Predict the 3D structure of the following.
Amino acid sequence: MIVADKKPIEEIIEEIKDKRKLLVLGCNECVTVCEAGGKKEVGILASALRMYFLKEGAEVKIDERTLQRQCDLEYLEEIRDVADQYDAIVSLACGVGVQFTAERYLSTPVYPGVNTCFLGANEDRGLWTERCQACGACILARTGGICPVSRCAKRVLNGPCGGSTSGKCEISKDTICAWQLIIERLKALDKLDEYEILSPIKDWSTDRAGGPRKVEREDVQQ
Amino acid sequence: MKVKTPSKLEKVLAAGHFAVTSECGPPRGSDPEVVIEKANLIKDHVDVVNITDNQTSVTRMCSLAACIRLKLMGVEPVLQMVTRDRNRIALQSDILGAASFDINNILCLSGDHQSFGDCAQGQNVHDIDSMQLIQTVRHMRDEGKFLGGDDIKRPPEMFVGAAANPFADPFEIRVPRLAKKIAAGVEFIQTQCIYNLDKFEEWMKLVRERGLHEKVYILAGMTPMKSAGMARYMKNRVPGMDVPEELVKRLAGVPKKEQAQEGINICIESIQRLKEVEGVRGFHVMAIEWEEKVPEIVESTGLYPRPEVD
Amino acid sequence: MRLQYPTNIQIIRVPCTGKIDVIHVLRAFEKGADGVYAVGCMEGDCHFNSGNFRARKRIAQAKKILDTIGIGGERAQMYNLSSSEGPLFAQIASEMDEKIRKMGPNPIKLAKKKAA
Ligand code: SF4
Ligand code: SF4
């Protein structure tokens, strides 16, 4: 899923302090699961903003709403009638949702209420970690199912680098070296000999490097 | 191994001599005298001098410019190149730039992560990795082609090196990783600083078992310790470093004033011992900010004078 | 045993402090409370294992938000005591009462009054 983290409230306040009618808009998907932008977080942010404005003596109307998905036109339509009644929308969806909302409702400014971080998984309570950088040409088959693109600090395809120490990455003792994991996994799969196969220079044109990407599927098109 | 480039380092090694290399970090400024002075301290005692490429990610004068300085004063440089800061366009372009000054040695590295340096908020590139850089240089040299497939007019003639850490984790791949670099096309190796000689010798044994010592020239990395404090720091703080406790004790056992000399003695003894190890073809003496000691080390280990080759 | 504690405190019973969420604390302040404190079981004694630990974290979160928006994090507190400690309960209530009195009323209430 897409993992996001809360944006500091002071940062959000800075963006919207002059507005008088606000919609705090959550999303029911990834950001709900990672507890950054679901209904609950919408409630907390809205309440905090309300108190802030009250304290400042400003009369501000703050509404709360959470859509099934902000990255989906169908659900975005649900606020069609009300969107232009607001001075601003604070979207707690990932960056995709924020933009999709903004694209739909051109006359209402939409501000991000979370920091969108990465594609990751929930490893433990309160701990999310990165697993994929959407490079567009997956090489997991060659790396024991562990992604060096997203999990190695230098995305070395023929690792590890010289900085790997006791299984940890040189950048910090809290970061596991991706290549340590790859080697362990290859060992577990009894495929350690495959370690010596050189990974060729990667075609990054399917990655961010190639410019904005799209997936176009005729089989799905109408 | 047949000589394939005009590199003096390659010729020394191919002639069967122990090679001696050293290293010099460019200054954090534009004064060329710093490079020239450092080189003057060591130039008669080593075959070639590595120039580091923004080591530990601290911004410095570029390796290529400093290499050209050496070249102009008649000292043969080894261009260190990290994949952290340049994409494949810049890497190939710098290789050609170096080749235009007839710089004939390159050391391919991935580079320390930028978080260690003065630009921790910067991006890193890592378009290709160090193994792939080895392949790239070999491809440019041997095929005379760019990665994109076009012909290179006057291809680079570079002797291709890489680093290796005999003590690296995970231990299972210490030797396979060297084999992989050889498969990528590496021709000489400069190892991580060696303090744990027993462990290094074990590694060399495994290297010989696979016959790798006949496919690549291995230069043992040597850095004299300046004090017991430095030894302790290297032991505890520097990733991938193996410093045995006895060594720290030995340094701590002599008065502070004499620790530096004791460090030099240890370095000399280590070289003497490793000269006997089959497959060790030379020494990479890195006396960090202590270049003036290199001559003493080289002379006391019978590696002086340096052979003449052409 | 009947113990005296300040009458301006409104007690809201929950099955376990683990039930208390950040939003509950914030809503109380929004509605004009001058202070909010949670009283949970002793750490390690939670019937549901970690309810009181969770409550502590949520109170901490609420404190941070209250500080950010200038209400004052000190107005929210977490206490732990065992069920046999009635006198301590009363003591905590007085302590909290005193603390909040020192801090003065919830600034929102003042602002509201001014506006009216
Ligand atoms: S190789 Fe690419 S697509 Fe596959 S997990 Fe890694 S970043 Fe994602
Ligand atoms: S230590 Fe491991 S994870 Fe970190 S940069 Fe090196 S190879 Fe990658």
Summary: The first helix of chain C runs from residue 22 to 30.
